[in-house]
Amino acid sequence: MSRITSPPVARRPRAFVRVSGPDAEDYLQRLVSNDVEVLQEGDSCEALLLTAKARVIAPLRVLRRGSDDFLLLTEPELGDTVRTELLRMRFAAKVEIVPEEHESWLVLGEGEVLDDRPPGDEVSEEELERWRIESAIPRWGREIDDRVLPAEAGLDETHISFTKGCYPGQEPIARQHYRGKVNRRLRVLELDGDAPPGTELLIDGKTVGRITSSVAGLALGYVRVEVPDDAQLELAAKAGFARIRS
């Protein structure tokens, strides 16, 4: 009889902000990019807090704990930013916005668990980074910042609802989605050589992309959309090449 093994796990540093009160659902629905009204108690969704020009302030996970009780999970360095932005936009809404403390565990391939360590072997930082890169999951400060459009990082497929009501940044997000296209996209790259973050990708001496994260033999990077999938990309100032993983 085969032994059933649990997926590997990793501790995930997080900041937590509680949004609660009689107006909590309506307030968040008007501020974040995904549809929180459809969440049942215990459900969560990925979302973005955006500027009016659709630049990313912070990526979020929104967890509904009750009818008027939500917990926002974000990157550890963005907790104060998220809380300050929410307080600034509160106006007359009857909501309380306070930090909380929790422990977060990532179950690779399955999701995130709070406070109770799930079963499974804990992976190293390098193993976690390799899994993230292979899964094309963008990371704040690497693939996501206030210069990156959500669609460039693929966040339009996971963090945005195109059927909900208005929120900051909705108009440029919708305009890009329905009428336009992005000039570059986040791709998984196989490396023949060393390519630290910031390494430019070239074709015939012309810059067509940039490495944002790398681990032995593998990388994430932004590549212009006109570059063919079978193109061989030269690593600038390095002896090596990159190929887009199909």
Can you give the mean pLDDT?
94
Backbone shape: globular
- The number of domains is 2
Give the helices and strands as they follow along the chain.
EEHEEEHEEEHHEEEEEE
Give the class from helix and strand content and strand pairing.
alpha+beta
Q: What is this structure, in a nutshell?
A:
The protein has 246 residues and is of the alpha+beta class.
Question: What is the secondary structure topology, with strand pairs?
Answer:
Blueprint: E1 9-11, E2 15-20, H1 24-31, E3 44-50, E4 56-66, E5 69-74, H2 79-88, E6 96-100, E7 104-107, E8 111-114, H3 125-134, H4 170-179, E9 184-192, E10 200-203, E11 206-215, E12 218-224, E13 232-235, E14 241-244
Report on the architecture of this protein.
The structure is a single chain. With 246 residues, the protein is α+β, with helices and mostly antiparallel strands. It has two domains: 9-124, 2-Layer Sandwich (Alpha-Beta Plaits), CATH 3.30.70.1400; 134-244, Elongation Factor Tu (Ef-tu), domain 3 (Beta Barrel). Helices cover 15% and strands 34% of the residues. The strands form three sheets. A six-stranded antiparallel barrel has the order 9-12-11-10-13-14. Strands 3-4-5-2-6 form a five-stranded antiparallel β-sheet, covered by helices on one side. Strands 1-7-8 form a three-stranded antiparallel β-sheet, with no helix packed on it. The radius of gyration is 20 Å and the shape is globular.
